[in-house]
Design goal:
Shape: globular
Number of helices: 3
Oligomer: single chain
Distance between the termini: 27 Å
Order of helices and strands: HHH
Largest sheet: none
Length: 85
């Protein structure tokens, strides 16, 4: 017997709602803006996403990175330093 859970955690994009797909697309767009240094458009997209999807953790983390970069533009680096696994 495996000590790991056997719950199916695979995701099928075709079964996601249009709202979720739109949110994922907008998060990807915001990430592209962030990586290119276009911080205000990224902040606008992510702020709107947080209003619509308050439980969206990944977009909230990206929004935090964007806000930090806006507050301290001299130290902006689109590469993230991960502190935990």
């Amino acid at each position: 017997m495996s000590e790991f859970p056997t719950q199916d955690t695979s995701y099928n994009c075709s079964t996601r709602s249009a709202s979720v797909k739109n949110g994922l697309h907008r998060t990807d767009t915001a990430l592209e803006h962030f990586e290119a240094g276009r911080l205000r458009p990224a902040a606008r997209i992510l702020g709107n996403l947080q209003i619509e999807h308050q439980d969206d953790g990944p977009s909230l983390l990206l929004l935090a990175q964007v806000v930090n970069a806006l507050c301290d533009p001299e130290h902006f680096d689109p590469a993230w330093t991960l502190t935990t696994k």
